Structures are given as C-alpha cells and as structure tokens.
Amino acid sequence: MPHSPPPHRPPVGGKDSAARDGDSARLASLGYQQELRRSLNILGNISMGFAVVSPVVALYAVSMIGTMIAGPAWIWALPVVLAGQCLVVNVYSELTSQWPLAGGPYQWGRRLIGPRFGWLSGWVWQFAVMFGNTTVAYLAAPWVFALIGVTPSPGAMVAVSMAIVLLCALVNAYGINLLKWFVSAGIAGEAIASVLVGLSLLLFFRKHPFSLFTHTFGAEALSGGSVPLALLTVLAVAGWAFIGFDACVSTAEETKDAGRQVPRAMWWALLSVGAVVILNAVAVALAYPHTATAVAGKDVDPVTTAVVTSFGSWSDKPFVVVVLVSFLACAMASQGGAARGLYSLARDGVFPFSRQVRKVNKQQAPIGGLIASTLVSGVALLLGLNATAIGSLIAFGTAATFVPFFLVSAAALIARLRGTWVPGGHIRQGRRGTVLNVLAVAWTGFEVTNVAWPRAVLAPPGAPWYQIWAAPLGVAVVLGVGTLYLMARRPQDKILAGVGPGAGPADAADAEDAGGDPQLRPQAPARP
C-alpha cells in the first residue's frame, strides 16, 4: 500500500512558492489581487532604491552648486541631510511593514487620515516623480553628447532626452525581471567605479588637507555675506542628494516577503548611497587642483576635472560612460516607480482614465501606468527648448519631492496621536517611534520650506522672477489642480463606497486592529 506524504511536506515549488503564496494572501487581505510579477528578492529591491538615489547622479546634482554657495564647507550639509532622511525612512519602514503596497503615499494616507488626504498625497507624489523623470532624462542627455564629442543644440538635447525616456519605457514594458537586470548591472558598475574612484582620489591624489572643509573661500558673498544663510541654502541643495529611496516601496508588490524586506531595502539603499556620496564629495574636494576656481563658478564640472587631472586624460571617456550608465539606471528605476504609483491609483478607479491606466500586460508590467507616465514626462521635456522653462521645471521637481515626505510623516503622526493607528506590521517601535515621527515631521516641514524658498542664488543670472519662484508656484499649481479634481470628480467617494478594490475588507480589519477611523471601513467586498 502506498504511503501518504507526511503532513509537514513543503508545497511544490519549495519555500519561494510558499512565500509567494503568503505575499499574495497578504495582498488579498488588503483588497487586491496579485497582478504584478512578484520576483524581486531584497537585493533586487535595494537596487531600485539605490538606482534612483544614485551616488553619481546625487553628486553631480549638488557638488558644483554647493561649492559655489558655501565653498568646501558645504560638505557638512550632507551628513545633516542624511540624518534627516533617516527619520523619514524610519516612518516609511513602519508603514510599508504594515501596508506593503505600490503607491505608498496614496495607500498610507487614505488609511491613516482618510480618502481625500490620501488621494491628494498620491496626486502630488505622482507629478513629483513624473517630472523627476523628465529632469533625470534631460540631465542625462549632455553625457550622451560628451561621449561622442558633440556640442548639442536645445533641439538635440530634447530629442536625445526623449529617446532616453522611450528606452526606459521599453525596458520597463518587458517586466520587472528585465528592469532588475538593467538596473542591477548599472548600479554594480556605478558602485564599483564610485568606491574605487573615491578611495583612489582620497588616498593617492589628495592635494589639500582636511582643514579645507573649515573654509568657505568667500562663497557666502552670494548670500549677502552671511555664512549661516549660505549653509541654510546648501541644506536645501544637499536635500536633492538623498531622495528616491521610496522607489523600494513602488516595487513592494513585486518583492518577496515585502513587509520585512522593503523596510530593510530602504535602509540599505539610503545608507549605502549616503556613504558613497559623502566619500566622493570629500575625495573630489580634496583632489580638486584649484578650489577658488570651483567656488567662483568658473568650472561647470568640478567632479570630472578632479578625476581627469588625477588619473590622466585617458580616464575622460570611461568616466563619462560610468556617469551615463548611472543616469540611465536612475531613469529606468524612477520611471518604473512612477508607472507603479499610477497603477496603484488607477486600479482603485480614482485617477483620470483609470480603466486604461490600470492595465497590466502579459509580462505583468503596469503598461497603462507606464504609457501615462511616459507621455507626461515626454511632454514636459518640450520645455527643454527653452532654458528658463526647463529650469523652472527642475526647481519645481526638487521641491515637490519633499512634499509627500512631509505629508506621509504628518499623517502618521496625526494618526498616532489620535490613537487611530498603532503600527501593526513587523516593525513596531512604540513611544520611540512617536518621538522619531515628531522629528521626521519637523525635519520634512523645515526642508519643504527650505527647498521651496525662492532664492535668486539658485537661479541662473538674470533669470525671470517666475523661475526664481518656480518651486512654490509649481507646488501650488499641482495642489490646486488636484484640489479642483477632488471637488469636481470626488474620487474619494469611490473608496468610501467600495468601488475601488483597495476598499476591501482588510481596511476594516486594519482599522479595528489599530483603533482606526470608522469612515475608512468599506461597504463592499474586494474584487476576487
């Protein structure tokens, strides 16, 4: 007689299959079915966050401007901003541990405060990311021309930027596995090159003592001669270097054991990038031959200058390749995050053209969100035909990125103090979490104001007033349009009425477990 298999025998497919089943069950308990391919391990998830934060992209975004504003002393802004962003990651970790869903600001905001707040948070976050994609593609284009030794015209810049956006869309359309391969290959090269270059500059090509970082070389003259004002400005500039770790959240529904692994991935992505950025910023400053030249703004690319003068002219093209690959990996991961955020909103039926935007293709990629984000980013690239217009867009994008950080942190704190949310995931910090949440709200509130503050010093000479005010004006426009849509179309009603699958039974269970607000309890079952 044949023997029956032992009751403890693992299911076919082993632990990975069991883990996927558990993730799918958790997703179903939150009101959604598994539509995206869940194939990322923790390293794959880290790679998404690492690529978007990107040490090379971050260094190029801040080093020249920071040096012009505060001289070598600008370096001290980096650890301060990194510490502040760690407070944000701490809040995000508690939230994604409990609700590991794509479109974090929307999903968390509506559960913590309510549908209106959540929808508006998601709306602002989406446009910040989509315009951020435009910025990355536009800033990547000059490196294409540097590689072939051609001086671009504005039209050529826009054309190459468009090609980059379309290339990133194509890679994303073939699913998370191909995206993971491209991004992982890119950041592997970037990380190795960044660490090797940084250590080499620091150990073998140092031209200045470490006391260099106690000097400003008179850079504070741009801030009316005030060193404190100059340092306040570089805190805003340095803030651009440590954003994008939330890309780990965007791929939560494609990550195995997401409730545990995504919080870890965010920490690894932010801290590893932070360490590499600080290492390279210090190394470049100490290896740069003529500091006064960089402070005076006479060198538009001090990073490349430091590398080429140290290693020799042969290093010029290889370094350009490393930078270009870094920008491409950043653009691919960022565009993927934008697509998944749109998918998260559209599957609840609360975004314009939701039926089309929520579509998933045969590769289990959010093709509708990808097409929509590509169209928005591509249309915005047309502003590159006018330097003032694209400058205004870049200024808005950097400011708008911090707004969702503030809104999410504030929502978590309000829900804690109301007693309507007690963290129920794997990460539960109790009173310590509340204290850190208070600090996160204080930090993000300060940085939103600081980054959005209109400063002529951060705009090109002779820039029109609207470019100087682009950050607050852009945020006001996006919030205003979102509020009008909220009033006219009332997307929050679909969530309250249970039309969106995200208003499934789990919201009621989560609300009851945490003492939640009864208005979040849905009235209809989740879609099977």
Explain how this protein is built.
The structure is a single chain. By secondary structure, the chain is mainly α. Helix content is 69%, strand content 0%. It has 22 helices and no strands. The protein has helices spanning 14-29, 42-53, 55-70, 77-98, 104-112, 115-148, 154-173, 176-204, 227-238, 247-250, 258-287, 291-295, 302-311, 316-346, 354-357, 367-381, 387-418, 430-452, 465-468, 470-489, 491-496, 505-513. The radius of gyration is 23 Å and the shape is globular.
Task: Give average pLDDT, whole number.
Answer: 87
Q: N-to-C terminal Cα separation, in Å?
A: 41 Å
- Provide the structure class: mainly alpha
Q: Note the run of SSEs as H and E.
A: HHHHHHHHHHHHHHHHHHHHHH
Please describe the biggest sheet, giving its number of strands, its sense, and whether it closes into a barrel. none
Low-pLDDT residue intervals, each spanning 5 or more residues: 1-12, 499-528
Quick structural overview:
The chain has 528 residues and is mostly helical. It has 22 helices and no strands.
List the helices and strands and how they pair.
Elements (H helix, E strand, L loop, with lengths): L13 H16 L12 H12 L1 H16 L6 H22 L5 H9 L2 H34 L5 H20 L2 H29 L22 H12 L8 H4 L7 H30 L3 H5 L6 H10 L4 H31 L7 H4 L9 H15 L5 H32 L11 H23 L12 H4 L1 H20 L1 H6 L8 H9 L15
Helix pairs in contact: 2-8, 2-11, 2-14, 3-9, 3-11, 4-9, 4-11, 4-17, 4-18, 5-6, 5-17, 6-7, 6-14, 6-16, 6-17, 6-20, 7-14, 7-16, 8-11, 8-14, 9-18, 14-16, 17-18, 17-20
